[in-house]
## 1
Amino acid sequence: MTRTALTPLHALLALAVVAVWGTNFVVIRWGLDDLPPLTFAALRFTFAVLPAVFFLKRPAVPLWNLAAYGLLIGAGQFGVLYIAMTQWISPGLASLVVQTQAFFTIGFAMLLTGERVKRFQLVALALAAAGLAWLMTHSNADARPLGIALVLVAALSWAAGNTVARTAGPVNMLAYVVWSSIFAAPPLMILAVTVEGWPAVSGAIAKADAGAWAAVLWQSVGNTIFGYSAWSWLLARYPTATVAPLSLLVPVFGMGASAILLAEPLTPAKLTAAGLVLGGLALNTLWPAWTRRTAAQAQEPA
């Protein structure tokens, strides 16, 4: 029988995952101090493949599916995200803006299925859009318009990757991420050599200290191997409506860790934008479950 509420131990596991995913934006910022963005992204996906690929069976999905997911998540999401975080957006705000992938994912689903947008989704989107607009007009160097635009591109790529992954059907998500990373690392390295130049790539790798390699391993082992495997394990045992809302805590951890570890100021303008965006995400995530629960209670005999 599927549980509907997380046990205390499993709730701690879920919180550990969102904490890793949220604080990961601070780790990205640290890694970018030593490694060029595309080089950093290429190394992240290289170590997501090795050595895990030798211990996980390839998912029974077409190669084009793995390749599409790898390219979208590798170059499209993280390659662009890392570039944005070099100088155009702070880690805390990046962790917030990238969550707009939820709305892009809904848009892709509607395009593919012909489903009509619901009223609560329009309200949720309006709240999130208002938050982004507020951020663009009231932020300083913490979030330049180009940085917000680049992170929105990353969110769009993430949503497209989610859509591709859904066509794969029920698979071992950890194995899927690891095997798809085979198609992410080489293009990222080619882009790194082309855009950043071989001297910059080789020089950065040669000079990388223990902190830089720790940031790479945190991305590949902590964020990917632990994060995806634990999250998939929870989703296999609990309803999506129980687990998915906890992802709303990712930007909370992201902004909190940025404030504590990087002294990123939590200004009133930034908190207002965060409240609007998170409000929209919360409405989009929680409204369907709330309406189902309300309808079920209304049908119960008095």
## 2
Amino acid sequence: MSTFPSRRRLLSVGAGAALGAGAFGASAVPASASPAAPQRSAGPEETRTLDELYRAALAEGGKLVVYAGGDTPTQQDGTKAAFKARFPDIDLTLIVDYSKYHDVRVDNQFATDTLVPDVVQLQTLQDFVRWKQQGRLLHYRPAGFSKVHDAFKDPQGAWVADGVIAFGSLYDTAAVGSDAPRSPLDLTDPKWKGRIASSYPHDDDAVLYLYSLYAQKYGWQWIAELAAQDVRFARGSNSPSQAVLAGQKAIGIGTSGSMVPSSSSPTKFVIAEGHPFMAWGQRLAVLKQAKNSTAAKLFLNWQLSTESQKRAFNGWSVRTDVAPPAGVKPIWEYPDAHVDGFPRFMADRAGVERWKQTFALYFGEVKGDPTPGWLGLHPGA
């Protein structure tokens, strides 16, 4: 897969040159981190069936706790319902919070020997690299691991992506009519002033990466023009689409969308060739200290099964043997999705902070309570 180095290079003018000074991979390791663990093989792929794993998980105790990144407490209710329908006797606790809170929560639980989750499913991709180095992750290859695209798995089996998420812009087809924006470049047209909602780029690293791509592609003057559009910013990447669906705004930026919406969907997700959007694989791992490791393995195998992968709401699977719907390409065939760029972006924590503070200068400080609520130190305990 191409690395697109020119797309990652910041503009060589003004603030862009300063933002480009950071070196990738400069992330701090907490004082509580365990020594770097030697790499080990995860062994062959899982050969047990889902039903065999289910019986083994019940014999283990039948409990499972998952910390999942997301925006609202109910965002993973569909996943939980589907899992419970397939494995009704597993006592599944699935806690949704911003990934940037879940990761430090898990770190603090490591430091205080109070670990709660068995599985972490997060957007903070850099944490999986660090936790692997610290020996915190169970090296394990679920069934179908060999069919997962290389960009979406750790070779040693420390983590694997269970789904693709894409962020970009969408619009209400009825509200925009024949004037629909063809690309993000159109969003600074004065006719859209006061009609755009966005999640804060300096509150969510995936939205931040999207906005960084906009800045690199269109320049800081475009960012300034967007800031003058009276955009309604809010916390949570769900907020722009909710504002559009509620008829409050015509356009949403920094939110997820689907390439295969239902025929009754009032919105359209914008992908324009030659214009950036962003996508990544949401990483999933079993913690080495998990109390319910067999149930955790069951969860990974179920998430990666072709049955589950075919249900992807946006048409994209992490598996190379699950074809997308007609008219949709696998996500790794969209160079403008920058699938390879987001992990590198997330690894450069100093660079991330500079991007955050720069966008705060353009759009103001983040305001509002976190949309999942305040969950404390040990949710799910």
